[in-house]
Amino acid sequence: MSDDCIFCSIVAGDIPARTVYETDSVLAFLDANPLARGHTLVIPKSHAQHVGDLDAALAGDLFDAVASLTPRIQDAVDADGANVGVNDGEAAGQEVPHVHVHVVPRFEGDGGAPIHAVAGARPDLSDDEIDAVAEDVAAAIDG
Fold first, then answer.
1. In the chain, is it the N or the C terminus that has fewer CB atoms within a 10 Å radius of its CB?
2. Extended beta strands in 23-132, E state
3. Of residues 39, 47, 50, 100, which has the active-site annotation?
4. Residue 100 among the catalytic residues
5. What ranges make up the beta strands (E) of 19-116?
6. Mean pLDDT of successive 10-residue segments in the chain (143 residues)?
7. Whose CA is closest to 26, among 38, 5, 10?
8. Which pLDDT value is given to residue 100?
9. Under a CB-based contact definition with an 8 Å cutoff, are residues 54 and 42 in contact?
C-alpha cells in the first residue's frame, strides 16, 4: 500500500467507494467521475503504478476480473458495448498512479469514439519504418 495513493486508501476502507466486486487481490468500483453509466474501475489491491509493475499472478487476477466483469457490467446497464482501457503513465493520461482498468459501457449514438481516438493523429509510417519498429519491439521483448 502507498500512503499517498487514493486507490490504496479505497482498498484500506479509508475512503468510501461504490464497490461492485472484490476478491483477495482485486477490487472493482464505480468511477466517481464516470464517462458513462456503469463506468467501473478494476484495480489490484496491492499498489503498482504501471502495468509492467504487476507480477504474472496479479496481472492474471486483474485481467481475469476484467474479462469476467465487462459483460456483466454491460448487462447491468443495458449497454451495447464497452471500451476497456488502461492509461499507463502520465503521458498516456494516467491521473492516479495506481494501475486501473477502465470498463466504460457504450451505447448506440452516445457520441463517444473508439479507443483509437485517444492517440490523436496516426503517424505516417512507411512499410520499412513499421518493419524497423517491429524489430525494435521484438528485440526489447527478447532483451
1. C
2. 26-30, 40-44, 81-85, 101-106
3. 100
4. yes
5. 19-22, 26-30, 40-44, 81-85, 101-106
6. 89 97 98 97 98 98 98 98 96 96 97 86 93 95 85
7. 10
8. 98
9. no
